[in-house]
Design a protein that fits this description.
Length: about 180
């Protein structure tokens, strides 16, 4: 108020000043809202891995065949393969090429069985391929893995795809509003 009167009357007024020898207290603690339930602010600053109930593994497990084929293609590309969609006339979903190697890729969103491994072994060489890879978003049983090794078939199971997605920060298709 004194400054306002001084300005009105044309007087010189010194600015307000507080002097003290005490160091100001910089630490502050406050609680706003309900401390029991997380707030939007708390959720926003929480690390993503801790707050996301939809992990890469869970999201990968819900992909359909076309979405999974896209993720497999991205994972192979990140590992140095050139990938493209295979012709519908071949038994493959993708063809992958690296140096002089050409691999046919069969993608299964329903898992890999010994029957699928046997069928894949029979199509090795189709479309000019040197080998076959089976890719799935599921866990592959040990007996099936052993059978694939016997037939020199490369397996990309759910765990290895999640590792590729996480290690190379590959995008996954956006989740649908409700899990399938």
């Amino acid at each position: 108020m004194a400054r306002a009167r001084a300005a009105r009357d044309g007087e010189d007024h010194r600015p307000d000043r507080i002097e003290s020898d005490d160091e100001p207290a910089y630490e502050v603690s406050a609680t706003l809202g309900d401390v029991e339930a997380p707030t939007a602010i708390a959720e926003a600053i929480e690390p993503r891995a801790e707050r996301s109930p939809d992990s890469a593994a869970e999201r990968l497990a819900r992909l359909d065949g076309a979405e999974l084929t896209g993720v497999v293609g991205e994972a192979l590309t990140a590992q140095g393969w050139e990938t493209r969609a295979a012709s519908p006339r071949t038994p493959f979903d993708l063809l992958a090429t690296r140096s002089d190697e050409r691999m046919g890729v069969i993608v299964s969103d329903s898992g890999v069985t010994t029957e699928l491994v046997a069928e894949s072994a029979e199509v090795t060489g189709a479309a000019g391929t040197d080998g076959v890879a089976l890719a799935t978003n599921k866990t592959v049983p040990e007996a099936v893995s052993r059978r694939a090794r016997e037939h020199s078939i490369t397996l990309l199971d759910g765990e290895s795809l999640v590792a590729a997605v996480d290690d190379r920060d590959l995008p996954l298709p956006a989740p649908v509003s409700e899990p399938r």
